[in-house]
Specification:
Blueprint: H1 6-22, H2 28-35, H3 39-51, E1 55-57, E2 65-67, H4 68-76, E3 81-87, E4 102-109, E5 118-122, E6 138-143, E7 152-157, E8 160-168, E9 173-176, E10 185-187, E11 191-200
Helix pairs in contact: 1-3, 2-3
């Protein structure tokens, strides 16, 4: 088998870095745009890396590239996992973080989390699609009663839980959707439950 060329190694490192940063692989078009080459050129590099058994991919599907050496390392040395409590439906009038609302847990690699407590919620609706948060996603939330302006928070307003972008104004708080179809929520009575840490999405 012929060795990997310098450019193929550069493409491999780009894929590796992209996956580590975004938690999903790049598309062929994203590879072509990064290196300033044609889509066919990027496709040829990916096929060559696959032939040389550096990656595994399905070029008929988007974002279907796996780096084989990292997969082997993970199998040999599994990364520590944290169990994050998953909240089910929240009854009106009940505090969110109570035992009655727990609905199992989700597994999150420990390396993605900082110190402190976390919980998870399943996103309902399309009000945050502009921030890449889709209906059905699982939002992993760092539990905190405070938030910085512009951060995405889970908040309780009028006994309902919502995920929005947070802005503190002079005498009120604005909870802004990331979808122009939804108007902002303005309130003086809001309880911050936590800030968004990660989004987990299933494609099955």
């Amino acid at each position: 088998m012929r060795p990997i060329t310098k450019r193929q190694q550069e493409v491999l490192e780009f894929i590796r870095t992209f996956i580590r940063k975004n938690k999903y692989p790049p598309t062929i078009r994203e590879i072509s745009e990064y290196f300033g080459i044609s889509v066919k050129g990027a496709h040829d590099h990916v096929k060559a890396l696959q032939k040389k058994q550096a990656i595994r991919c399905d070029t008929n599907r988007s974002r279907a590239i796996e780096i084989l050496d990292e997969e082997k390392e993970q199998q040999e040395s599994p990364e520590p996992i944290r169990q994050i409590p998953m909240l089910g439906s929240v009854a009106a009038g009940l505090p969110v973080l109570v035992e009655e609302n727990y609905d199992g847990s989700v597994e999150v690699p420990a390396s993605l989390l900082k110190k402190g407590d976390y919980f998870a919620l399943q996103v309902q609706g399309d009000s945050m699609t502009g921030a890449g948060i889709m209906d059905g996603d699982i939002a992993v939330i760092a539990q905190t009663p405070v938030a910085e302006n512009g951060s995405i928070v889970v908040a309780m307003v009028d006994e309902a839980v919502t995920i929005k972008r947070f802005f503190r104004e002079s005498n009120r708080v604005q909870l802004k959707a990331e979808n122009p179809a939804y108007t902002p929520i303005y309130t003086r009575d809001v309880r911050i439950l936590g800030t968004l840490a990660h989004v987990i999405r299933s494609y099955e």
